[in-house]
Specification:
The protein is mostly helical and 87 residues long. The protein has one domain. A two-stranded antiparallel ribbon has the order 1-2.
Length: 87
């Protein structure tokens, strides 16, 4: 199949990426998201990130945000990853 014709969501890949981000940064995923995304984005409400029984963040879709803050994420993406003048 040519690249880009079919989309397949792979939850384990997203969870692995979250674990790799934690190891590389030395921070918990939740703290990393707050510091690198949520605060610079100017989000008004806190995001809720689901965790498993061991307390590991569910990075494969366990994040709940308000519609207004989700719109902020969408606008950042529309602007090529720039929010409030910061990438």
């Amino acid at each position: 199949e040519p690249h880009g014709q079919t989309f397949r969501y792979r939850s384990p890949n997203s969870d692995l990426l979250g674990l790799l981000l934690e190891r590389a940064s030395g921070q918990r995923f939740t703290d990393l998201v707050r510091e690198k995304l949520w605060l610079p984005l100017g989000a008004v409400s806190e995001a809720s990130i689901g965790v498993d029984m061991e307390g590991t963040a569910r990075t494969a879709g366990g994040i709940s945000v308000t519609p207004r803050d989700l719109a902020r994420v969408g606008e950042m993406m529309r602007q090529g990853g720039v929010a409030n003048g910061r990438r």
